[in-house]
Amino acid sequence: MENLSRNRYPFLSRADVKRRIESDEAYALECAVELERRTREREAGHGLGTSASGWMSSHRVVAARLVARLEAGKQTLQERRTLVRMVVRYARQLARMERERALRAHPELEAVACLFGVASKTEANGVALGQIGDQSGAEPDLASRTMQVVEGHPGCHVSEIAGVLALPTAEVSPVLRALVAEKRLRRHGEGRWATYSVRKKDPTTG
Description:
This protein is mostly helical. It has three domains: about 80 residues, no CATH class; about 35 residues, no CATH class; about 60 residues, Orthogonal Bundle (Arc Repressor Mutant, subunit A), CATH 1.10.10.10. The protein has ten helices and three strands, in the order ααααααααβααββ. The longest helix has 19 residues.
């Protein structure tokens, strides 16, 4: 696994997962099978200890039928396309699944997950944030987490930042406005297509 820097978000974001689903049908169908598995676990009362819980009730019946045909090797091209379109809507949940996989494969990333506020409650309670650089041991606030994301993803949009933080854009936008007003971030452009970067300190001003 690449890019495991402490200062960069090392997990797939919702936007990353969405792009992969749209460009890689095999991956999209693998995600559909995993969503179905988690749905069955949930319905059987066997909680997975995560917030990623499978299909929404509005998709449950159709998704189960399409996945069953996929597993039986009987799915048509149109049915595969339908299933892929459904899976795209679960990009946020699938990003959480990918993060869980990454944490299982690389337990040392639990401290980084806590820094970005995306660790599970169990992980967050078991990892001391003081392990990361010179962190004080208190969970970073949303402004600090946002700064970390922008530093690791210069030129990102608000939707991408929100995807990394697993928060709605309406919650992230005011934080970005405040950071720009405080001259900690630069905003390039206006409106929904504005991008953000960290404002570098002027060495002549100390």
